[in-house]
Design goal:
The complex is a heterodimer. By secondary structure, chain A is α/β, with parallel strands linked by helices. Chain A has 3 domains: about 1-190, Dimethylsulfoxide Reductase, domain 2; about 230-310 and about 315-380, Rossmann fold; about 425-565, Beta Barrel (Barwin-like endoglucanases), CATH 2.40.40.20. In chain A, about 30% of the residues lie in helices and about 15% in strands. In chain A, the strands form 6 sheets. Chain A has a 6-stranded mixed β-sheet. A 5-stranded parallel β-sheet of chain A has the order 3-2-1-5-6, with helices on both faces. In chain A, strand 7 and strand 8 form a beta hairpin. In chain A, helix 4 runs antiparallel to helix 7 (about 120-125), helix 4 (about 80-90) packs across helix 8 (about 130-145) and helix 4 packs parallel to helix 10 (about 160-175). Chain A is globular. By secondary structure, chain B is α+β, with helices and mostly antiparallel strands. Among the domains of chain B are: about 5-80, Roll (Ubiquitin-like (UB roll)), CATH 3.10.20; about 220-285, Single Sheet (N-terminal domain of TfIIb), CATH 2.20.25; about 295-360, no CATH class. In chain B, helix 2 (about 80-95) packs across helix 3 (about 110-120). The longest helix of chain B has 19 residues, at about 305-325. Classes of the chains: A alpha/beta, B alpha+beta. Chains A and B meet through helix 3, helix 11, strand 9, strand 10 and strand 11 of A and strand 10, strand 11, helix 7, strand 13 and helix 8 of B.
Chain lengths: ~575, ~375
């Protein structure tokens, strides 16, 4: 979010989901699209079927690599090397869009100087991706007009996540692949309202619509609107909050997040939570985090309340109440009003539509959107949508980069904070599977999904498993410097040698006992994708206890990872 | 009739765009042509023959779904010849189908029976009464009821062209053509990703959703559909929650999730396994139904809203008073609505005076 705000002036998908099918070149990096965003994967499959070229950069062999023209199996955390090398090729081979660079960007010289030494041959040594593949990808990207880049948390969940986004932005600005249909840079949002939560100002540094907390004019505007005085001191981001939980932070109000499942290095966080003075949890289930709560407030789920979610492509869409919440549970918005009133504020909203109207009143990019309008037009509206007769915006930067000029950000490769060593030689990445969702409070309570994928597993390369005497289905212990967990082993064609992979969904085997809690310098997003681990055999599986393959994809026979064996 | 972008359909002049078929042009103009194997997301195959129309100058009837519109084309969609063809065709389909329309309506409404009803006066043929062996599949979501299948292959083509996993295929020949997985294995063991698109596109309810059937949910015609936005990933698929109003002691119960029509932004009527099938949590017995307060014994106990709100406000205010407002932290949620996120940040900033408000999705 912050990376794209800096380089382009708006932190969102530049294009619409529907435009993906018309792209001619798709560069998918750090996104297991068919499992995490199945519907976007359908659009990509449609594009490939039409003849579009697809390049997938991912340490693992994933479903999307089976239809890709090229798979770049880079080592986890080496994205900047790969992307800078692509920039180097584009500049060195004269494939950049000089007119666009001259007219619409700034900072080009610094970038050109910085990437000059990032040759594909050197990149091959660090990333493990063949120089010829890097060259071919850079050429194909630069020379195809309708070229789109798609990324997810494989890019951002690193201590250098913002650098990764900068490196991707650089490729876009070098080639001018921005501001037209199917052409741009697209973060695929992982949760229903990631875009909306940020748009609405649930941020320590931004009011709604990315208006800075530190800007005195903005502060004055909100003080007038809300009739109170406001702090100009930027707040702590989530990563910082978690680190000072129990010390500087003494009370938590937590709505709809299961932080002891989702936050990294949770053993330390749990100690902090034990030291808190006061914790309020507002959720639909008694979550793992509720163990630390003083007060638990029962909330309504999405089917039991009205409101809006804003999706990845900036589309504000209605959520409609279909059924009544159970027992005394109340909609979150209603509870928040109740808390404010109990705390002495005189909030008086009759409906979510009222609240939304207040939100957009001070937020110019959303000013033309209302519940009533979405309802009457029968379709969600995409911001920017400044006036009530504005049709919404399908793709950004059409009339020039929103920031004014696109900003090149020269970045250098920084290694991940923890790299494999002789004690912990295996690099762990975590992620989502097709059949579960995040802390899995909902999906483990839905028929069928727990049967398909009942428990956690760790994917290991055949040789790494063999060295440790591990075979399919065995019970193993996964250890890092921060903790350990037990789960079944899955000898997989998907992972590289020296890498392991785990889903983070399961409360009995919390992958986040292992992960590191160092965050990105700008966003605070933690490095869920790289930490050093070891795997030990605990008990071999009985011959009749080899569970069925739990995932959605076995790995490609003869694919990039297996051919290396 | 010399304009380069016009065709004449039943004496009505219609415009068409380059690349459009006769069906595209007529549908855009709001004329209805019967179709069974057609879906706008799929390449036309012209397999079911129900959209045949008479094109002047052509000896045979032509499939509207597969015939490109060309300038000056003169088309008849409802003349005696076309209607006779439609009646005979639907009779043939019905002779190998569940006879009673009402029996077909426990799952999706049957498009075949609906077309037959619209057309009326169908010749009655002797039913084929083929033997159908019920096929058990241990997957909990999708059931194939071969006695309703008309082999239009919408499901097979969707699985190939849209979902791209090719889990199901046409198998057998002639009269015995039916749908199966490779070697007849369970969908659980196949490449199937359980998106349920086959259920959505099936015109006759042959691909059916197991859960509402086994749970004894009310027939589809008695369910109320509520259009909403999926609560899982960031795509924001539109979906229809099918609500049984009388269920769950009058609270209403979501018994099924169905797709909006193809073409509905942003997801084109597609859903994934979580969107279509992971709705049971809504009515799960584990749902919190009352506020809980931590008692002196260290356990959580049910409490009234009044007590819970009072304790919440007092607890937060006490910490703020003792350690300053910046000792409070508000964790909002990318799972909740825009409105709720707005209120949390306003609560944090305006009521308690701190900018310590965030959520897990700021990447």
């Amino acid at each position: 979010m912050a990376g794209l705000v800096t380089t382009f002036g708006a932190g969102a998908m530049t294009n619409s989901i529907h435009e993906i099918r018309e792209a001619d070149f798709l560069f998918v990096i750090g996104s297991n699209t068919s499992e995490a965003h199945p519907i976007i994967a359908m659009e990509m499959k449609r594009a490939v079927r039409r003849g579009a070229k697809l390049v997938v950069a991912d340490p693992r062999s994933i479903w999307m690599t089976t239809i890709a023209d090229r798979h770049l199996p880079l080592k986890p955390g080496t994205d900047v090397w790969l992307l800078n090398a692509m920039a180097q090729v584009i500049i060195a081979e004269g494939l950049s869009d000089e007119n666009f660079i001259a007219q619409s960007t700034e900072g080009y010289e610094a970038l050109a100087e910085r990437v000059a030494n990032y040759t594909p041959e050197e990149a091959e040594k660090i990333t493990g991706v063949a120089a010829a593949d890097i060259r071919a990808t850079a050429r194909a990207y630069a020379t195809t007009r309708k070229a789109g880049i798609y990324y997810t948390l494989g890019i951002t969940e690193h201590t250098h996540g913002t650098d990764n986004v900068y490196a991707l932005s650089n490729l876009v600005l070098l080639t001018g692949h921005l501001g037209s249909r199917s052409t741009g840079l697209n973060p695929l949002r992982g949760q229903n309202n990631v875009q909306g939560a940020n748009d609405a100002g649930a941020s320590p540094i931004f009011f709604p619509d990315y208006q800075s907390v530190g800007d005195p004019e903005i502060q004055a505007k909100y003080e007038a609107a809300w009739g109170c005085s406001l702090s100009s001191e930027p707040g702590l981001n989530l990563n910082q909050m978690m680190k000072v939980a129990g010390s500087k932070i003494r009370a938590f109000f937590i709505m709809g997040e299961d932080i002891v499942m989702s936050e990294p290095n949770v053993a330390v966080l749990e100690e902090g939570l034990n030291a808190m003075d006061f914790v309020v949890i507002q959720d639909i289930f008694l979550t793992e985090t509720a163990r630390f709560a003083d007060v638990v407030l029962p909330a309504a789920c999405f089917a039991e309340k009205d409101g809006t979610f804003t999706n990845s492509e900036r589309r504000v869409q209605l959520v409609r109440k279909a059924v009544e919440p159970p027992g005394e549970a109340r909609a979150d918005w209603r509870i928040l009003i109740d808390i404010a009133r109990a705390s002495g504020a005189d909030w008086d909203y009759q409906s979510p539509a009222d609240i939304y109207a207040e939100l957009v009143h001070e937020a110019p990019n959303f000013a033309g959107i209302s519940h009533e309008r979405i309802d009457s037009e029968g379709i969600g509206l995409q911001w920017p949508c400044p006036t009530s007769d504005h049709p919404g915006t399908k793709f950004l930067h059409e009339g020039g980069v929103l920031r004014g000029k696109g900003l090149f950000q020269a970045v250098d490769y920084k290694p991940s904070v923890e790299i494999a060593d002789s004690d912990y030689p295996l690099v762990l990445s975590t992620g989502r599977t097709l059949y579960h969702y995040n802390a899995a409070t909902q999906t483990t309570r839905s028929a069928g999904l727990p049967e398909k994928q009942p428990e956690a597993f760790v994917e290991l390369h055949r040789k790494d498993a063999g060295q440790r005497g591990i075979s399919d289905g065995d019970l193993v212990e996964v250890l890092s410097r921060r903790g350990s967990l037990r789960c079944r082993a899955q000898v997989s064609r998907q992972v590289r040698r020296g890498c392991i992979w785990m889903p983070f969904h399961f409360a009995d085997s919390r992958a986040n006992l292992l992960t590191v809690d160092q965050g990105d310098a700008v966003t605070g997003t933690a490095e869920y994708k790289v930490c050093a681990t070891e795997v030990r055999l605990l008990a071999a599986a009985a011959a009749d206890d080899k569970t069925l393959f739990p995932g959605a994809f076995w790995g490609e026979p003869g694919g990039a990872t297996s051919s290396a064996t | 009739m010399s304009a380069p972008d016009q065709i004449l359909v039943d004496d009505q002049t219609l415009k068409f765009c380059p690349g459009e078929t006769i069906l595209d042009a007529t549908r855009r103009a709001g004329c209805s042509l019967p179709t069974l194997c057609h879906d706008p997301r799929l390449e036309p195959v012209g397999a079911c023959r129900s959209c045949l129309v008479e094109v002047k100058g052509q000896r045979r009837l032509m499939p509207a779904c597969k015939t490109p519109a060309s300038p000056g084309m003169q088309i008849e969609t409802r003349n005696e010849r076309v209607l006779r063809h439609q009646r005979v065709l639907l009779s043939l389909y019905l002779s190998d189908h569940v006879g009673d329309p009402s029996e077909c309506e426990d799952g999706a409404p049957c498009e075949l029976h609906a077309l037959a009803k619209d057309l009326g006066n169908l010749p009655v043929l002797v039913p084929l009464q083929r033997k159908h062996k019920p096929r058990a599949d241990r997957n909990p979501f999708i059931e194939f009821r071969s006695e309703r299948c008309i082999a239009c292959a919408r499901c097979v083509r969707y699985c190939d062209e849209v979902e791209g996993v090719n889990a199901i295929t046409l198998t057998g020949r002639g009269l015995h053509t039916t749908i199966s997985t490779a070697s007849g294995i369970s969908l659980y063991d196949s490449t199937c990703e359980l998106c349920g698109g086959c259920v959505d596109v099936c015109p006759t309810g042959a691909m059916a959703e197991k859960m509402p059937l086994s749970a004894g949910a009310a027939p589809e015609r008695e369910l109320e559909k509520v259009r909403t936005t999926c609560n899982y990933c960031g795509v924001g698929c539109q979906m229809d929650l099918n609500v049984d109003r009388a269920a769950a002691a009058g609270r209403g119960q979501v018994v099924k999730v169905t797709s909006p029509p193809a073409g509905t932004a942003p997801s084109d009527g597609n859903l994934c396994v979580k969107g279509r099938f992971a709705y049971d949590f809504i009515d799960h017995p584990d749902r919190l139904s009352t506020p809980l307060l931590r008692g002196a014994d260290g356990n959580l106990h049910p409490a009234s809203w009044e007590a819970a709100l009072e304790r919440t406000a007092a607890g937060l205010q006490e910490v703020a008073k003792k350690h300053g407002a910046d000792a409070l932290a508000f964790v909002s949620s990318a799972r909740c609505t825009m409105e709720e996120n707005y209120l949390v940040q306003k609560l944090s900033r305006a009521v308690f005076g701190t900018n310590n408000v965030h959520q897990c999705a700021a990447t």
